Amino acid sequence: MGRSFYHFLMTYRDPEKRDDKTNFANAAYRDHSFPKQATNYQMLSNYLELNAPYLNGMALFDELYEEYLLDEEKHR
């Protein structure tokens, strides 16, 4: 894989929008402990479940991770 999930997620950052994906990206940006180089679903999922009170449910992460995989596949 080329870029990390974090770098993919940062494409959703926006100071104006308030949708769930943008809120997640903005919160992850402020989370200095976020595993910024991780690409592995299990590692990211474990981190978010234990350390991310800003994420209201794992369904959003699952959806974004699927988008991430599709995006990575497209850029191969």
Automatic annotation (TrEMBL):
Protein name: UPF0346 protein MFLO_05305
Family named by the database record: Belongs to the UPF0346 family.
Source organism of the structure: Listeria floridensis FSL S10-1187
NCBIfam families: PRK13672.1
Domain YozE SAM-like as annotated: residue spans: 4-69
